[in-house]
Design brief:
Elements: H1 2-18, H2 31-56, H3 59-103, H4 112-124, H5 139-144, H6 174-216, H7 218-225
Function: Regulates the proliferation and migration of oligodendrocytes, a process essential for normal myelination and repair.
Family: Belongs to the tetraspanin (TM4SF) family.
Main location: membrane
Amino acid sequence: AAAGILCYVGAYVFITYDDYDHFFEDVYTLIPAVIIIAVGALLFLIGLIGCCATVRESYCGLTTFVVILLLVFMTEVAVVVLGYVYRAKVEDEVNTSIMKVYDEYNGTNSNAQSRAIDYVQRQLQCCGIHNFSDWQHTRWYEESKNNSVPISCCKIAGCTGSLTHPEDLYQEGCEALVVKKLQEIMMYVIWTALTFATIQMLGMLCACVVLCRRSRDPAYELLITGGTI
């Protein structure tokens, strides 16, 4: 179950980041998501080893289970650290690239930047970088010469994006909302890694308890050394 949830969270991060990938250039931002998917896949195998070792009361199997869980635990701690590092870098990444993305907008579906901006403005209910007036400084606005912003800025039906009716447009800029959204996504990874790191710690403790009980059982010691009771 833990493996499935970890893989789901990692996939969710990939899918969501794909909608915002034009607003950051550092591909390493996705490293925590890659690690958490790999950990999820590995955790499924580890769980099978742990179950088999516990049922068979295998000393070697339980020891292997504890060692591997410890390695996974350390990996998840690394995910938490990387998550915090990249969460802090998101704002700088967006600030650096968002102006360039808006300047490449041409209003057609064939243009990736146009699709990304229209999607963000509709989903986050925002317009422009800081507010809708930012569109007046873009190449698309200068070329269109119709004193309007994209339809994706409209908050009501029947709006044409005309700047003569600013009350029909979203008032908040997209930059701060994109940063907030990406940081929230990274926090999902951080909290998921922390939660399952705690669960794995309990798993290691339980396995250690079983190992200690087996090692203190005289009958078990005779059995593994080839003696008779």
